[in-house]
């Protein structure tokens, strides 16, 4: 009887341990109709709502949220970034304390802030925060899972592997890219941007002709001007149309067809795309330079 009780107690402890581990490694998120991944995090004990954005480069807080932090240290140097449209942003850099996202905790984190309103959000958490930690965005369970070496190895056995090219900007910011075939014509290196929004596929306008898009055909192409929400003097021009096919160069089976595309003048990349269409579970392994997708 004593052995049975000990066994039952041992099993209960294992279950509780597993539950605790799951709670620590799973970060819940909200997924509104816009396709954005919204998470809660705390900085120096102050809780906020954030956009998890693999295309943001640098982690940025709103000034309103930043001003609530009891401790911050301004760094001597700054950082010049460029939005995808080419708009220049000169940012001051700050070190903040105790940045927590689910089970991930950074004793210090480098951030900047902008005096803007983000629709009720307190900032944007970039890929830089997760640069050493492989993770899975599970769109069905609406959680970000922090992967272990064992769980990552299991995913590599079943997932479709798309090589990624991380872009580290002097240790301050981090983005990631991968190669995709567009209309079976061009192989372009696209920014993988979880913050782009639902069904957003942007390409550099210099590829219009190569992809057979006639900007003078107003029945198929619409030109729009967009003013920056940060610098009101900056205006970008975009051609809206549809394309036939987009497929991962390394895994052609990962594809979408008949999609709406935006050709942006002055885009600093070949293109940018949201990543939710790739699969229900998207694993990002920056150290391993890989993205693994599963349905």
UniProtKB/TrEMBL annotation:
Top-rank taxon, per record: Bacteria
Gene3D superfamilies from the UniProt entry: Acid Proteases (2.40.70.10)
Alphabetized UniProt keyword annotations: Hydrolase, Protease, Signal
Molecular function as annotated in GO: peptidase activity
A Pfam family annotated for this UniProt entry: Asp_protease_2
Signal peptide span: 1-17
SUPFAM superfamilies for the chain: Acid proteases
GO BP, one annotated term: proteolysis
Protein name: Aspartyl protease
Species, as recorded: Chitinophaga japonensis (Flexibacter japonensis)
């Amino acid at each position: 009887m004593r052995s049975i009780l000990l066994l039952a107690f041992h099993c209960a402890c294992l279950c509780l341990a597993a539950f605790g581990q799951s709670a620590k490694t799973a970060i819940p998120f909200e997924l509104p109709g816009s396709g954005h991944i919204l998470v809660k995090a705390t900085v120096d004990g102050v809780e906020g709502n954030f956009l998890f954005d693999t295309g943001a480069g640098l982690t940025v807080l709103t000034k309103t949220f930043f001003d609530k932090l009891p401790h911050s240290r301004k760094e001597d140097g700054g950082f010049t970034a460029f939005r995808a449209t080419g708009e220049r942003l000169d940012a001051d850099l700050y070190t903040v304390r105790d940045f927590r996202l689910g089970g991930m905790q950074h004793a210090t984190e480098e951030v900047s802030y902008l005096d803007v309103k983000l629709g009720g959000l307190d900032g944007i958490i970039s890929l830089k925060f997760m640069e050493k930690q492989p993770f899975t965005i599970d769109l069905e369970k609406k959680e970000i899972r922090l992967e272990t070496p064992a769980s990552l190895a299991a995913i590599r056995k079943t997932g479709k592997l798309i090589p990624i090219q991380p872009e580290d900007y002097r240790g301050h910011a981090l983005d990631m890219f991968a190669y995709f075939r567009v209309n079976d014509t061009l192989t372009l290196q696209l920014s993988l941007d979880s913050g782009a929004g639902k069904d957003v596929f942007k390409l550099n306008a210099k590829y219009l002709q190569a992809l057979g898009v006639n900007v003078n055909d107003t029945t198929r192409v619409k030109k729009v001007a967009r003013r920056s929400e940060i610098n009101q003097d900056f205006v970008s021009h975009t051609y809206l149309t549809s394309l036939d096919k987009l497929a991962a160069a390394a895994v052609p089976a990962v594809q979408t067809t008949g999609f709406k595309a935006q050709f942006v003048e002055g885009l600093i990349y070949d293109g940018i795309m949201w990543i939710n269409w790739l699969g229900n579970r998207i694993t990002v392994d920056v150290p391993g330079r890989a993205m693994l997708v599963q349905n």
